[in-house]
Amino acid sequence: MQFSMPVSLDCKAERKIRANIASFAWNGTPQGHEEKLGKHNAYVAGSADSDVAILFLHDIFGWKFTNNRLLADHFAKEVGATVYLPDFFDGEEVDEDTITTPEKQAKFDFAGWFGRNNKDIRGPEVFEVARILKQELGFKKVGAIGYCWGGWAAFRLGAKGRNLVDCISVAHPTFLLPEEIDAVGVPVQIIAPETDMMFTPKLKAYANQKIPELGVGGGWNQTEKNGLERAKNAAVTWFATCLKL
Fold first, then answer.
1. How are strands ordered across the β-sheet holding 40-45?
2. What's the whole-model pTM score?
3. Rg of the Cα trace of the chain?
4. What was the pLDDT predicted at 21?
């Protein structure tokens, strides 16, 4: 079985991303605050007194996207963790109008965005933030959840020998490679929609076969198109179990 990851986006890959970018806006007002986490701006939800942290690795919509911040609030309250949602795009994110404006979505420069936010550039930043949580801020347990773009980053954080997180969860992981699955050394939860052009049936099957072979423990939740609340609840249950002190 062979897989490949393009260095730059070809037309086929870009079409797939455009098909997945549409989202929806939740109602509600985020309850957290903003602070610095290393060199990164970050949205922080939950009590600073918690011994447990969750690193939220955002999707293409970025750290200011209301849906992401509301999810961080849910995780903080329901898991009892401090949730950190850093900005990994240097202030750049897809404007929320892109959700409902097809013309604006069509004009978005995916290839340029990917070049500015590829794994070689953002990977070391993700590792440094996780190191700060684990080593400098002294959280006893740290989990990571990656949505879409953040999925590959969660897997890399959980690689054998890295010792930065205690478990990971990913939802609709994009740009994920089989070798990143092979390298994981912590418990893994995968939340996958029934139809996903980026996390393909071939890659799903590979993950479903490989992760049990690694002996790290794992969970698999497949959600329907409108199952985002179910997906959130699955992640809450996962972290409440894996991060229990």
1. 33-37, 40-45, 82-86, 52-57, 141-147, 167-171, 188-193, 218-223
2. 0.87
3. 17
4. 46
